[in-house]
Amino acid sequence: MKEKNTNRSVSVLIPDGESHILRYVINCFSQIREIKTYVMSNKKNNAMRYSRYVHKFSYYAKTDSDLDWIANINKEIEKHDIDVVMPIFEVGIRALIKHRDRVLYKDRLGVLPSLSSFDSAINKGLLSRHLDSNNIPNPKSIMVESQKQLDKIDVLNFPVLIKPLEGFGGGYGIHVFKAKQDIYDHFDKHGFNYANLFQEYIDGYDIDCSVLCKEGNILAFTIQKGNMIGKNEFAPQIGVDFLYEPELYRVVESLMKSLNWSGVAHIDMRYDKNDKQFKVIEMNPRFWMSLNASLLAGVNFPHLYCLASMDEKFERPEYEFMKYINLKGLLLMIRREKSVLLKPGFIINNTPLKFVLKDPLPIMYKFISKD
Predict the structure, then answer these.
(1) How many CB atoms lie within 10 A of CB 307?
(2) Helix, strand, or coil here: 299?
(3) Position 233 pLDDT exceeds 90
(4) Fold of the CATH domain 140-200
(5) List of residues 6+ apart from 274 with CB closer than 8 A
């Protein structure tokens, strides 16, 4: 296998291409002519296999063994002379961190955090402990693993928010309660099906920060605040405004340094109107659904991830303070105000529509197959 040559095209392997995040990553790579994207997936009828920007798609049946998956990655590395192996979702990222010694040509692995840092980030209870121990602002929280432990929440002030410790997403399993009896009634009715984090509800607003880091240093970032609510107040926003908040950045910088973080992450935060502080709510140690918003604002996180993984130097990009609306948001805007259709510049530059128009086959396949 020949030595890496950064003057030629860069071959990137996405080994967990079954993730719904894939199309956002591919949209970002579509902007970089030098990148050839190879996708591995355990989903044979993956709509993204029909993307004009996927150089090669490989299907491997899903198994219960991480080591089988790693063996398939090794096959792809050797077969296609892969420069960067870039996992995009939690399960794949953790598996590669855990079994990195089984990967041939370990220098081809993208930048990844340590296993302990990853586990601290993805588990909301462990993250809360980490934030407390490092004096990083966050809401007071208690882990509760069974219904018998509900008395532990007596130390919290109401209203109280509950959320699953791990997994799920999209606002699933998140509820706010104004009184302790309401919590007992909730679990009597629905059962206590998984460990939860109980957290004091913050009177304020949500704001997020996306980062690419290496050994705790932030190489690129964007800060965005929701401007259009999704299906509920805890679901991802369908529109965001990009802005800069120096105090928020300092909190995120402290968090990344405390974890010695390498790789990407999306940090959910909330501004506390009472304490006048930006507080860390949770952290997603993976690529995120608003990647294309960051791209349109001027930061191509997947491309920069590849450069960082190959030890290529680059200046930290500045981003535009712009408004972004996803396709659901665009349709909602059009329903409310038909005159939006008379603003083609906004539609092209502030929504992801141009990515669909340039690469329509995946969307067409998804529509026809109803997959």
Answers:
(1) 18
(2) coil
(3) no
(4) Dna Ligase; domain 1 (3.30.1490)
(5) 203, 204
Residue 261 token pair: 């973080």
- Calculate the dihedral angle through the C-alpha atoms of 52, 307, 17, 87, rounding to the nearest 10 degrees: 180
Residues 83 and 301: their CA atoms lie apart, in Å, by 17
| CA-to-CA dists, residue 23 to 17, 233, 337, 342, angstroms | 9, 25, 29, 28
The most distant pair of C-alpha atoms in the chain lies apart, rounded to whole Å, by 66
CATH superfamily, domain 10-110, is NAD(P)-binding Rossmann-like Domain (3.40.50.720)
130 CB-near residues (< 8 Å, 6+ apart)? 120, 136, 258, 259
Which residue in 145, 139, 48, 66 sits closest to 58, CA to CA?
48
Instruction: Give mean pLDDT, residues 287-298.
Output: 96
Domain assignments of the chain as residue spans, ordered by start: 10-110, 140-200, 204-369
pLDDT value at 110 more than 70? yes
Distance from C-alpha of 103 to C-alpha of 99, rounded to nearest angstrom? 7
pLDDT-derived band at 335 (thresholds 50, 70, 90) equals confident
- pLDDT tens-digit map of 152-204: 888 888 998 888 877 655 556 688 888 888 888 888 887 887 888 889 999 99
Query: pLDDT, tens digit, for every residue of 212-232?
Result: 999 999 999 999 999 877 655
331-339 long-range Cβ contacts below 8 angstroms, 24+ apart: 332/228, 332/238
Residue 289 CB contacts under 8 Å (≥ 6 apart), including other chains: 20, 21, 24, 236
Residue 137's nearest CA partner among 273, 248, 261, 224 is 248
Is pLDDT of 150 > 90? no
What is the average per-residue pLDDT within 275-301?
96
Q: How far is CA 39 from CA 66, 84, 279, 356, in A?
A: 17, 12, 37, 19
Looking at residue 195, its pLDDT comes to 82
Class of domain 204-369: alpha beta
